[in-house]
Specification:
Distance between the termini: 73 Å
Helix content: 40-55%
Shape: flat
Number of helices: 18
Radius of gyration: 39 Å
């Protein structure tokens, strides 16, 4: 028999008391030599076994399946697996005689052994990991409650391994404080702070400048004022703060201001992108103006005007207060009266019922066609078996029939699943039209814009301070009906009919 020697140790907590890789190799080599075991190859893995997917372990099992070895030498079974997936693989290979012998430092495992013993050992290894994880989390939560940060200290602090606390780095903490004070003045960029830290000896692990994102993380880290975040919650820490909360707040204000320097003037207005200039065809943009009166009152106005990208456009600007009433009137002019909506809904229901009857008859025809194509395929197969048709001819005809049958099958399934799907666009349009009155009286400008875009798309123009619309069907028909018929008159609807047919 040939054996594979497998040694594993991870840097995780559960392996602290396990022999090192070198010690395992030394002990297992001596064991193999004393018992005369032929070691075909050695596998060394520095990875936790609590999750499946170890590359070295998987490679060893693949080579065992190929027959390169029939046994495994390892320190203990928990070196092979600490999860039920890998443990199950080892147990199965042993039961199937793919693995004929597993030798550990204290016992042997054979295919004829009671499977319960190995299952218990693997189960104990897996349960140990689960208990350890739970205990570690419990310990971390306890540290957090005591105000101890359970992770690596940020730059400016040090982890005291002996006392298991976080202490101030006397040299770097002064530089960090100076960086906060420098940025709080409002004249420095993140890149400037990075250069300041580099020049004063505060650098990345590679000895390079901190990236500006890292600098921003430092400047927004509440750890420096004695707080820390764990599990998404803010906690008070026992570590000594480097800066005062007042300085930290000032830095946060500067970060916000520098991140949005033109926020007041560049805020996009709701109606931008809706209108085009009726003279030159360019887009309509918006500007916000502030007027300060002598009595202390402040007034803000929004003006919409042509971008004049082509130049030479003579169109004047218009205030938002003068533009909105025009848009509201346009929305009201295309709104569906409630009595018309109910009449349309009745007609849609009638068409849907009629369509279902026609659809059922059409589906039946398609099913008969599918059945007919199946019979043709059967007859074609009989002809080929009886050698009354050449193979090339048989394959060509069969391909044609199968493709046709597939198309008919899909058409039949589509009709059965969505008998009235062709009426859905009508229902959606009816819903949109019935909500236009609400959009007209609403103060929500974005909703007005959305409704107008559904009706006109980009066919709204502003010229001489007046909005001009070019509606498409069916909106133009609805507008004409509102002009020619009273809201209580529904006779024209049934006289004209919906005019809808399934496609």
């Amino acid at each position: 028999m040939h054996y594979f020697l497998y040694a594993r140790k991870s840097t995780d907590v559960e392996d602290k008391q396990v022999l090192s890789i070198e010690a395992q190799l030394s002990e297992l080599r001596s064991l193999a030599k004393s018992e005369g075991l032929d070691i075909a190859d050695e596998f060394v893995e520095k990875r936790s076994a609590k999750m499946p997917g170890r590359p070295v372990f998987n490679e060893m099992l693949k080579r065992i399946q190929k027959g390169e070895a029939q046994g495994i030498v390892c320190w203990k079974l928990d070196r092979l697996a600490r999860n039920p997936v890998d443990g199950g693989q080892i147990s199965w290979f042993l039961q199937e005689n793919i693995i004929q012998h597993i030798r550990t430092h204290d016992r042997s495992h054979y295919p004829t052994d009671n499977v319960l013993m190995m299952s218990v050992e693997f189960g104990m290894a897996n349960q140990f990991i689960r208990d350890l994880s739970s205990n570690v989390k419990r310990g971390l939560r306890l540290k957090v409650k005591r105000g101890e940060f359970p992770s690596t200290a940020p730059v400016g602090y040090l982890n005291d391994v002996r006392a298991k606390t976080i202490v101030i780095d006397r040299k770097k903490s002064k530089v960090i404080r100076a960086a906060f004070e420098l940025y709080a003045k409002g004249n420095s960029r993140l890149e400037d702070i990075s250069n300041f830290l580099f020049e004063n000896g505060v650098r990345s692990f590679g000895g390079l400048h901190f990236h500006k994102d890292r600098v921003k993380f430092i400047l927004t880290n509440a750890f420096y004022v004695g707080l820390f975040t764990y599990g998404g919650e803010m906690h008070e820490g026992r570590h000594t703060p480097i800066i005062e909360k007042r300085l930290f707040d000032k830095v946060q204000k500067v970060i916000i201001e520098r991140g949005h320097p033109m926020k007041t003037h560049n805020t996009p207005k709701a109606l931008c992108g809706l209108l085009r200039c009726g003279e030159c065809g360019m887009g309509i943009t918006a500007e916000e103006r502030t007027k300060y009166q002598q009595n202390g009152n402040v007034h803000r106005y929004v003006y919409y005007r042509c971008t004049k990208k082509k130049g030479g456009c003579s169109q004047p600007h218009i205030r938002e207060e003068a533009l909105l009433p025009q848009l509201n009137a346009i929305l009201s002019g295309y709104a569906m009266p409630s009595i018309w909506q109910k009449e349309f809904e009745k007609l849609i229901a009638e068409d849907e019922q009629s369509s279902s009857l026609k659809n059922a008859a059409f589906v039946q025809e398609l099913r008969e066609k599918v059945h007919d194509l199946s019979r043709k395929l059967d007859r074609l197969t009989d002809l080929y078996i009886a050698q009354d048709i050449e193979r090339e001819d048989y394959l060509a005809r069969r391909r044609t029939l199968v493709m046709e049958k597939k198309s008919v099958d899909e058409q039949c399934a589509r009709l059965e699943a969505n008998a009235g799907h062709w009426l859905e666009p009508m229902r959606e349009w009816l819903k949109d039209a019935s909500l236009l009155d609400e959009a007209a009286i609403s103060e929500d400008i974005p909703s007005k814009k959305s409704s107008l875009q559904k009706i006109f798309g980009s066919n709204l123009h502003l010229q001489n301070k007046e909005v001009q619309e070019i509606p498409a069907m069916p909106w133009s028909a609805l507008r004409a009906a509102r002009s020619n018929f009273h809201e209580s008159d529904t006779s024209f609807i049934r006289a004209a009919g919906l005019g809808l047919e399934p496609r």
